[in-house]
């Protein structure tokens, strides 16, 4: 934190002064990403924490939120990841909150529905409604929690959760993981791509071959069925009748960038690094505004793209990725933050008029982006 405070006043610089390349960034000094992350995390605690439940709420503001409900599992997973990344930088400051929240999420755990445990969309008791993508995201957050705490129970729970995710895989359409347990109508990149990354992250820690095999199998299926052959980016989903939803969102391509980076790290095969770079360049062209640096998507998707750019930067050390990430985060902080320190859902423009309510996932996505970038760029971490 002290290091971040040495760049007081940076937030008042205009984007024109900040510039468009790494050399210009160096000239004005790095943005105080850790400080911004701490401020955002403090605002989340102020606005979203429900001490009576020991959980974060999903939304604040608006007429229908006088008794705000707990966060959905997707939002909870992003918040857990934000806490993990904060604790990675400042363990003494954030580890206790990370452990408290990771344990509190047991209240979402359906222990033996359809023979397998998995996280429900909302805390129990309730009828089971589990999403395979929610559970893939939480595997990643639990592995990050383990990275900080070294508590085996989080790695064990991550492995149990991955088993649930992989139970959503079958031979319809030749393989792939469904999106939702109760409604097996489509196989989505948002469930398959994070499943690949989750399996590879578990393999890194456990060296269990079934994790690596699952990752390769799902990677191959996702690349064959959901990747656009022209630009390398990924479509949203394929339905059981074979119809492909060709919409493209940042997070789908982002997770496949990370998958390729991890496969390169494990195998040393340059084809994976080249593929990660190819997808990243296409993603930058499609989604990053060359004038402002803004990412043209919602933050709950876009923060994963910035993390993917950093994953490529970690391997190739191309300064373009650092410049892209820092410019985007400066735009978010300087142009989108309101007087209460809250952020809108979009990362490319302010919300006019200001939103009547704010979601946890939008705030947690910003906090996570700040901490991930601070760790990667300013603390020499990976």
Would you write up a description of this structure?
With 382 residues, this protein is mainly α. Helices cover 58% and strands 7% of the residues. The protein contains 15 helices and 9 strands. A hairpin with a 4-residue loop joins strand 1 (49-50) and strand 2 (55-56). Helix 6 packs antiparallel against helix 7 (132-149) and helix 13 (299-316) packs antiparallel against helix 14.
Topology:
Elements: H1 2-5, H2 15-18, H3 22-28, H4 33-48, E1 49-50, E2 55-56, E3 59-61, H5 73-89, H6 91-104, E4 109-113, E5 116-119, H7 132-149, H8 152-166, E6 186-188, H9 189-206, H10 209-226, E7 237-239, E8 244-245, H11 250-267, H12 270-287, H13 299-316, H14 319-336, E9 357-359, H15 360-378
Antiparallel strand pairs: 1-2, 3-9, 4-5, 6-7, 7-8
Helix pairs in contact: 4-15, 5-6, 5-7, 5-15, 6-7, 7-8, 7-9, 8-9, 9-10, 9-11, 11-12, 11-13, 12-13, 13-14, 13-15, 14-15
What is this entry, summarized?
This protein is mainly α and 382 residues long.
Descriptive labels:
382 residues; mainly alpha; Glycosyltransferase; 2 domains; 3-stranded antiparallel beta sheet; two-stranded antiparallel sheet
Count of individual domains: 2
Output the number of helix runs. Answer: 15
Binned, the helix content reads: 55-70%
> What is the makeup of the main sheet?
3 strands, antiparallel
The H/E string reads HHHHEEEHHEEHHEHHEEHHHHEH
**CA gyration radius, whole angstroms:** 20 Å
β-sheet strand percentage:
5-15%
CATH T-level topology of the largest domain: Glycosyltransferase
E-strand count: 9
């Amino acid at each position: 934190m002290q290091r971040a405070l040495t760049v007081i006043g940076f937030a008042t610089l205009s984007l024109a002064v900040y510039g468009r390349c790494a050399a210009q960034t160096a000239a004005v000094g790095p943005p105080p990403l850790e400080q911004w992350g701490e401020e955002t995390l403090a605002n989340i605690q102020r606005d979203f924490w429900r001490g009576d439940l020991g959980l974060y709420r999903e939304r604040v503001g608006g007429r229908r939120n006088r008794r705000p409900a707990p966060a959905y599992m997707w939002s909870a997973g992003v918040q857990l990841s934000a806490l993990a990344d904060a604790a990675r930088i400042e363990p003494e400051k954030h580890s206790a909150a990370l452990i408290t929240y990771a344990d509190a999420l047991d209240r979402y755990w359906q222990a033996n529905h359809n023979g397998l445990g998995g996280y429900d969309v909302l805390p129990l008791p309730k009828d089971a409604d589990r999403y395979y993508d929610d559970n893939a995201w939480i595997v990643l957050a639990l592995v990050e929690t383990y990275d900080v705490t070294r508590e085996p129970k989080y790695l064990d729970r991550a492995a149990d959760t991955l088993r649930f995710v992989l139970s959503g895989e079958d031979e319809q359409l030749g393989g792939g993981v469904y999106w939702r347990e109760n409604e097996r109508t489509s196989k989505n990149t948002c469930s398959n791509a994070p499943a690949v990354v989750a399996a590879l992250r578990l393999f890194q820690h456990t060296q269990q071959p079934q994790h690596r095999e699952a990752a390769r199998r799902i990677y191959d299926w996702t690349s064959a069925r959901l990747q656009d052959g022209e630009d390398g980016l990924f479509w949203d989903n394929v339905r059981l009748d074979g119809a492909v939803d060709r919409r493209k969102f940042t997070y789908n391509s982002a997770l496949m960038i990370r998958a390729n980076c991890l496969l390169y790290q494990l195998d040393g095969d340059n084809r994976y690094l080249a593929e990660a770079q190819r997808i990243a360049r296409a993603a930058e062209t499609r989604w990053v505004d060359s004038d402002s640096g803004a990412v043209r998507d919602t933050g709950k998707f876009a923060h994963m793209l910035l993390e993917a750019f950093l994953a490529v930067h970690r391997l190739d050390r191309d300064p373009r990725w650092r410049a892209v990430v820092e410019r985007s985060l400066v735009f978010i902080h300087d142009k989108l933050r309101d007087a209460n320190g809250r952020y809108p859902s979009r990362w490319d423009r302010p919300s006019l008029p200001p939103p009547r309510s704010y979601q946890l996932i939008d705030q947690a996505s910003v906090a996570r982006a700040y901490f991930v970038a601070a760790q990667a760029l300013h603390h020499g971490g990976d």
